[in-house]
Amino acid sequence: MAKQPKSAMSRALVRRETISGYLFLLPSLIFFVGFVIIPMVICIVNSLTDANMNTQGLGNFVGLKNFIDLWKDDTFLEALKNTFVIVIVSVPTVCAFSLWVSSAIYKLNGKLLSAFRCIFYLPVVTGSVAVTVVWKWMYDNYTGVFNYVLKSTGLIEKNINWLGDSKYALWCIILILFTTSVGQPIVLYVSALGNVDQSLVEAAQVDGATNFQVFWKVKWPQMMPTTLYILVITTINSFQCFALIQLLTSGGSGTNTVMYYIYYTAFKLTEKAGHFGYANAMGVILAIFIGLLSALQFKLAKEK
Amino acid sequence: MKKMKRFLAIALTLAMVLSLAACGGSKKEETTTSGSEQTQETTEASGTSISLWTYPIGGWGDENAVKELTDAFEAETGIKVTVEYLAYADGDDKVNAAITAGKAPDLIMEGPERLVANWGAKGYMVDLADLLDDTDKAEISPAALSACVTGEGAVYEYPLVMTAHCMAINKNAFEEAGALQYVDLDSHTWTTEDFFNAVAALYAYYGDTVAAVFCAGQGGDQGTRALVNNLYGGTFTNEDHTAYTWDDAANIKALEQLQNTDGITFDASLQGGDEIVKFYQGILKMGFCWNIAQQLDPNAAGTGAEKTITGDDIVFMSFPSETGESKLCGGIWGFGIFDNGDSARIDAAKQFIKFMCDSEHTADAVRTAKYFAVRDTAEGADLSGIWADEPIMAEYNKLMPYLGDYYQVTTGWAQARTSWWNMLQDIGEGADVAETVSTYMAEANAAAAG
Question: What domain range includes position B121?
Answer without folding.
Answer: 47-163+330-402
